[in-house]
Write a structure and sequence with these properties.
alpha/beta
Amino acid sequence: MRDNGQINDEFYMKLALEMAAGAVGQTGINPAVGCVIVRQGRIIGLGAHLKRGDAHAEIHALRMAGTEADGATAYVTLEPCSHFGRTPPCADRLIEAKVSRVVVACTDPNPLVAGAGIKRLREAGIQVDTGCLEQEAREINESFHYFIGSRLPFVTLKTASTLDGKIASRTGDSKWVTGEESRAFVHTLRHRQQAIMVGVDTVLADDPSLTTRLSVPGLDPIPVIADSSLRIPEDARVLSGSGAVILTTYSAPKDKINRLEASGHAVLLTGFGPRVDLAEGMRMLGERDIASVLLEGGGKLNGSMLVERLVNKIVLFLAPKIIGGAHAPGSFVFGGFSRMKDAIQLDRVRVDTFGKDLCLTGYPLYGEDETVCLPEL
């Protein structure tokens, strides 16, 4: 709705975007999509894609609209598909329903679609308008857009520190750096990601479960642990279920690999050296159809992922505290750059507040200097 209060395309597209945003995290590598169908100023159909392999947003909305879809306008946050996948093409269903106009927020980056859906609609005589709230639509599915183009998971690094950059005290105490509001939002982030990644040092120090704990049931991400020599205890809480993924090296003990795999976990061999090959690990996660990863590592893993340019987004919580301690652990541990101009900067920065805490969200811009050392994982 514009400032003058008039209802226009953005009004209905915002509703479609809200429906898509509500389904983020539960569609796997598929995008979260919303659809609103309007006829003569009245909403007659609503739909969202809720699960990979199930009906798409357009189909749900068309079912609700029924025969009233004839001559209506459909607002869709992502270009209707034009190919047979796990479900029939949505473009064909819109044509069959005889909608007169389709408003699309953004085109589909999937090479199987990539404009073909829009073309099919136009060839059928349907008016198609694109670009309505495109940036907002792209942000909702930023993991999908990145994964489709790279076949690598979109990595969101989340960390929480004091004002002096410490994630724990000099004794290792970290409960709690931030307040309840911040910690609750972190569990929302977990719900929205396919996987959650930590280093073995975090497992040894905290024995985390890495589950999603919300006031309502949430989805648990797949645990991913970077562990070069398989130091992870076999009774660790993160291994209490089945389906964890452990990134290790070819020097890891074979008998422990066998036991972990027999318990239902995946052990991926990523390098021949002393360190986990994180780039190879991300590639292997992509092969397993993991399109998004929430990185909740300690300073060494965070630093290594940054240095190797594998982080796509950073969510940094800052608590209004100063803990001090020359050897207290920090959010990012790596060799460091020699010049300030080479520092990794954040683009498109947004600042939110959760209780007394600040939350900075941005996208890292990597410079040309790559001459930094990596810690062992």
